[in-house]
Structure formats: structure tokens, C-alpha cells
From TrEMBL:
Signal peptide: none
Designated name of the protein: B box-type domain-containing protein
Keywords per UniProt: Membrane, Transmembrane, Transmembrane helix
PROSITE patterns in the record: ZF_BBOX
Domain of life the protein comes from: Bacteria
Segments traversing the membrane: 65-84, 90-109
Domain B box-type intervals: 1-45
Length: 121
């Protein structure tokens, strides 16, 4: 591959923003990617900041797989209790409680399978 600006010079890499081939004279190495010197440094720095923030958020996500299921289970148990207490297991509170409990199980299984399969990669 040749440099986009200097067709007679071999490129050492591509700009992370525009993906054009760059020679040593045109490239600015920002540590986590090359940028067109004087043109795309700010864009590439923004890309790198976004990637770093996303990596931090994604690494914290598996620790939080129980928060939503526990909340839905708690709400389900409350609704089931009040529905059962009123002796109407076919009433709206009881049915909503069962729905919340089923939903909590579905959310837990989905979160567990999603984050356990991604942690192996």
C-alpha cells in the first residue's frame, strides 16, 4: 500500500479516522492508532476515549447481572403475596406477580448466558 499523499512512498499504516494509507511523514502515532498529521488527531483521540469508556462499562456489566432479576423477583413476590392474601389467585395482582417472577427468570438466564459466553472470548 502507498501513502495517500505521497504515492511514491510505502505506507506504514492507515488513519483510524479516514482509513487512508499514511507514510511516516504523514502519520501521527497517538498510541492506540495512527492519524493524519494535523488533520484527524482530535477525531482519533475521541474514538480512543469512546472505546476506553465502553470497555470499562462492558467490564462492569457482568457484576450487575443480578440487579434487574432481583428487582423483578421482589416485585413479583409482592404482587403474588397481595393477590394471594385477597384470595383471588385469578386476580390482576396475582397474575402480574407471576408475570414478574417469570420475567425475572428470563432476564437472569439471558444475562447469565450473554455475559458468561462473552467472558470466555
Amino acid at each position: 500500500m502507498r501513502c495517500f499523499n505521497h504515492q511514491d512512498v510505502q505506507a506504514i499504516g492507515t488513519c483510524k479516522a479516514c482509513h487512508k494509507g499514511l507514510c511516516p511523514e504523514c502519520a501521527n502515532d497517538l498510541g492506540h492508532g495512527l492519524a493524519c498529521a494535523g488533520k484527524h488527531e482530535e477525531v482519533v483521540e475521541t474514538y480512543n476515549a469512546i472505546i476506553q469508556r465502553n470497555a470499562r462499562v462492558y467490564s462492569a456489566a457482568p457484576k450487575n447481572i443480578l440487579i434487574a432479576p432481583i428487582f423483578y423477583l421482589f416485585m413479583g413476590l409482592i404482587f403474588v403475596y397481595f393477590g394471594y392474601k385477597d384470595d383471588s389467585m385469578t386476580g390482576l395482582p396475582f397474575i402480574m406477580g407471576v408475570g414478574f417472577i417469570v420475567f425475572s427468570i428470563v432476564i437472569f438466564v439471558r444475562n447469565y448466558s450473554l455475559f458468561k459466553s462473552n467472558s470466555k472470548n
